[in-house]
């Protein structure tokens, strides 16, 4: 008798839970106009390369510099997708040291200017956030 009562109560609870889930209205999915960058879409090799270059620019390898440079690439990754970061670095490398018509193809397009500006702003913001002076 006791087992029938427990089974009945469990069946009733299960039925209520299932019917309650079935009648819950679905929430509307909001569409975002611009996708937010994924902080983890940067390949490990590129993160390590950035950190090593950053450490070298800031005076050599110490734990504090390594941590700060790792923080810096993480902050940049929050603001830019890897594709945009890679394009901005490419435009920066190709236009560096090129004057006149030789560098104009990489320096003057609107996409190049926009990406290099975004990268420069992201790096400046990350530098402020991660390096203690």
Overview in brief:
The protein is mainly α and 133 residues long. The chain is built from six helices and no strands.
Tell me how many strands there are: 0
Query: Rough shape?
Result: extended
Give me the number of helical elements.
6
Main sheet, how many strands, which sense, barrel?
A: none
Please identify the structural class as seen in this structure.
mainly alpha
What does this structure look like?
71% of the residues lie in helices and 0% in strands. It is mainly α. Helix 2 (44-57) packs across helix 3 and helix 4 packs across helix 6. The longest helix has 21 residues, at 2-22. The model has no long low-confidence stretch (mean pLDDT 78).
What descriptive keywords fit this protein?
single chain, 133 residues, mainly alpha, 71% helix
Lay out the secondary structure.
Elements: H1 2-22, H2 44-57, H3 63-79, H4 82-95, H5 101-107, H6 110-130
Helix pairs in contact: 2-3, 3-6, 4-5, 4-6
